[in-house]
C-alpha cells in the first residue's frame, strides 16, 4: 500500500478543495468539476477485446462526494458497434468476448484488493 496523497481541485460550489487521492487515480487535469459531488477519481482506461476491435473500455472509478455509491467500482462502457452477423462473424465475436473476459478478470481482482484495502482503513 502506498502513502496517502492529496490533490487540490477547484470547484464552483466550494472553491478549492483538497481531498485524498488514491494511488490508482490518473489525475484531474482534464476533469471539469462544477460541484464537489462531481469530483471523481479515475484510473487508466483499459481497452478490452482484441487490439483492433475493443468491445469495452474499463477504468477504476470512484465518486467519494457523489450521491450514489461512494466505493470504488469498475466503470465499463460498451464501445462495439451494433452489427448483423453471419455465422463466422458470430464466432469471431465470441472469440473477442472470450478474450475480453480474460482481460476483465484481473481488473476484478484488482478492484477487490483495492476495496479490501479501503475497508481496512
Q: Which SSEs are present, and which pair or pack?
A:
Elements: E1 5-11, E2 15-21, E3 41-42, E4 46-49, E5 54-62, E6 73-78, H1 87-120
Antiparallel strand pairs: 1-2, 3-5, 4-5, 5-6
**Level of helix content?**
25-40%
Secondary structure category: alpha+beta
Number of E-state strands: 6
Radius of gyration: 18 Å
Distance between the termini: 11 Å
- Total number of domains: 1
Are there runs of 5+ residues with pLDDT below 50, and where? none
Q: How many helical elements? A: 1
Strand content is 25-35%
Give helix and strand order, one letter per element, not per position: EEEEEEH
Characterize the main sheet: 4 strands, antiparallel
The outline comes out as elongated
Mean of pLDDT: 90
Any overview of this molecule?
The chain has one helix at 87-120; strands spanning 5-11, 15-21, 41-42, 46-49, 54-62, 73-78. The chain is an alpha+beta fold and 121 residues long. The protein has one domain. The strands form two sheets. Strands 3, 4, 5 and 6 form a four-stranded antiparallel beta sheet that branches. The chain has a two-stranded antiparallel ribbon with strand order 1-2. It is elongated and about 55 Å long. The mean pLDDT is 90.
Brief overview, please?
This protein is an alpha+beta fold and 121 residues long. It is built from 1 helix and 6 strands. The radius of gyration is 18 Å and the shape is elongated.
Key words describing this protein structure:
single chain; 121 residues; alpha+beta; four-stranded antiparallel beta sheet; two-stranded antiparallel sheet; 1 helix; 6 strands
